[in-house]
Amino acid sequence: MLTACASAPHRALQQEVALQQRAAGAYAKGDLAVALKAYRQLADDMPDDTASWFRLGNVYARLNQPDAAMKAYRHVLQRDPEHAKAWHNLGVIYLHQAAAAFVQSARTADRDAELRDQSMHMATKLEDIAGADAGHAPAQGTPTAAQAPNAMGRPVKGEGP
């Protein structure tokens, strides 16, 4: 009887490890649907595991679901306020959202050429800044990958979360 009790937690741990490997493999291959399902399950199973939540945020970001990505990154930051990669990726999303707001401002500034020009200038500058992120930011960094994409799906060299 004790053997059965001891093997159940071991089996559960093996299943979690297998799920983590499946999620990381799918993400590395670009199979975001499988990665999303696996990371959601991991996040549900281990709500305090910041690594799973961080990677879930990265999947959402690559799927162009910034609100869901931000929610996942905030979940990480509630548990680990020092998680620099989550702060970074959250900042990248905010940059893209700010640029989109300036583009919308330019589109609606029909009667104000100066505002339209300023808004487009700001949008361009913000996108340039966000685009510069591609070569400098750590992000996903799965334990088995030498390179991993950042929040916006660009490959960068990084270490594990």
TrEMBL record:
Protein origin, superkingdom: Bacteria
TPR repeats: from-to residues: 50-83
Residue spans of biased composition, Low complexity class: 134-151
Gene3D superfamilies, per the entry: Tetratricopeptide repeat domain
This protein's UniProt keywords: TPR repeat
InterPro entries: TPR-like_helical_dom_sf (IPR011990), TPR_rpt (IPR019734)
Pfam families the UniProt entry points to: TPR_19
Region (Disordered): 133-161
Designated name of the protein: Tetratricopeptide repeat protein
